[in-house]
Amino acid sequence: MYAQRSGRTCGNCHESPTWEDPEGWDNPELADRKCTLSCVACHVDPTGGGLRNSSGRYYGQSTLGVFTSQARSYSDLDREVIDDDTLWRVKEFLGGEKVGEGRTIPSDFEDVQAGMGQGQTGRISSAGKPLGGPDVMAFWDGRYGDLNADPAFQWGLDLRGAYFSGTETAFPMQVDVHGAVHPVEHLTVAGTLAASGSDASGPRFFPRRAFVMAHELPGMSYAKVGVFQPAFGTHIDDHTSFTRKWFEQDVSDPNDTVAGLELGTAPNYPYVSASVFATDLYDPASSGWGSAVNLGWRDLGWSLTGHGMLKQRRGGRGDLAAAGVGWGLNPAHYLQRLPLTYMGELSVGTGADGTRTALYNEAFFLVRNGVNLRAKLDTGWRDGGVQNRLSAGFDVTPLPGVTFTTLGRALRAAGDPTWQPDLFLQAHVWF
Which pLDDT tens digit goes with each residue over 216-226? Predict the structure, then answer.
């Protein structure tokens, strides 16, 4: 959703060199561009989720919140709860630094090699520089505000707490600690230590990611080997949706992670990732082999994608064969006055416990930066019955790294004609 919605404007995830020099931008060749609407634009893990790279951190600090700590994209200045001039005065009052004399934002790699923009220290989440100096495909200092654009070390958190009226309980929903070491250009070692869900088997804490990756290759290409979750379908924030839970995409289940090799590329606008792997790392009875592919086209105003996965096991959860299509529409790219984003997916699979079909539809309306309305319909067919879950509510991100979600939901279980309503509240702290 974030990626599709970002097609409404350029500059969500970086400073524009034309802010200082209208003639300064040297449009790079396609192979050298970092612009893409795929997950690799904002995350260290190219298939999404987890630790944010400099572009993702800048996006979170400049675009998502009511208040910002980086410059807001020019196309969003009329969508603010508080106008830009007032925000600027508040930042000045709090001691924010003004832009110094002369150009400080590099327009091309020659500027970077000459030292323009260097010296940004960022915040506590990153430190150091890789040996050997910057590369043309690395993120460049100066293009991401005061962030350390290409750190040697970085870490982050994703913490979610929730309240569910159905059980009248508050509980931790996600506890993730991310880290990455980038000793030299084109090489990163990354990992995520995650807490497992209360209904998951396996260890209480487990490495959802633990891989070595070659990246910063032409066309935003990469290769990674280690532990990860295979890319399948639309990456959404609700892992209980049928398109995620029923197809072994539960981020809180240790056995939905795999160990193997993944290759991918994501120039604007096509993308593809393919992987081969060993399954069920914590359940010997279900161990086996599998493969997955995720590919498509993510354009500024629309997306159309396809995905497939095969898992062959000796027993336990049994084999899985699944495939599907996804789609997205971003009318705001064509009409700025309509900040609407729509995402959908249809996936079908078969396994030891029968055939399952899942349909996901969700719409988002950006009232103002930091205030987002959302409505979702999940439909699942399994064992001859159909389930529906309808959700509607809103997200508020008052500050970068803090998001509150309020959802009214209603579930109609298979064979039950009545809707069972509930209230779901979530607080998300992230960086």
Answer: 999 999 999 99
Widest Cα–Cα separation across the chain = 69
DSSP code for 120: -
Instruction: Report the candidate in 259, 251, 233, 252 with the shortest Cα–Cα distance to residue 356.
Output: 233
Structure tokens at 196: 């497992």
User: CA-based angle 196:295:192, to the nearest 5?
Assistant: 25
HSE-CB at 396 with a 13 A cutoff on CA atoms is 6
Q: Which H/E stretch holds residue 387?
A: strand 385-399
- Write the CA distances from 368 to 9, 371, 393, integer angstroms: 14, 5, 15
Q: What is the DSSP letter of 382?
A: E
CA 258 to chain centre: 19
Rounded Cα–Cα distance for residues 217 and 298 (Å): 20
> Which has the minimum average pLDDT: 73-82, 108-117, 119-128, 184-193?
73-82
DSSP code at position 73 = P
How close are the terminal C-alpha atoms of the chain, in Å? Answer: 18
Residues 153/190, Cβ–Cβ less than 8 Å: no
CB 318 within 8 A of CB 352: yes
* AA identity, residue 306: G
pTM, entire model: 0.93
pLDDT tens, position by position, 193-245: 999 987 777 899 999 999 999 999 999 999 999 999 999 999 998 988 999 99
Check: CB of residue 81 under 8 Å from CB of residue 66.
yes
Which of 111, 104, 96, 107 is CA-nearest to residue 142? Answer: 104
DSSP-based three-state secondary structure for 212: strand
DSSP letter for 170, please.
Answer: E
Which two structure tokens, joined as six digits, stand for 303?
């997306």
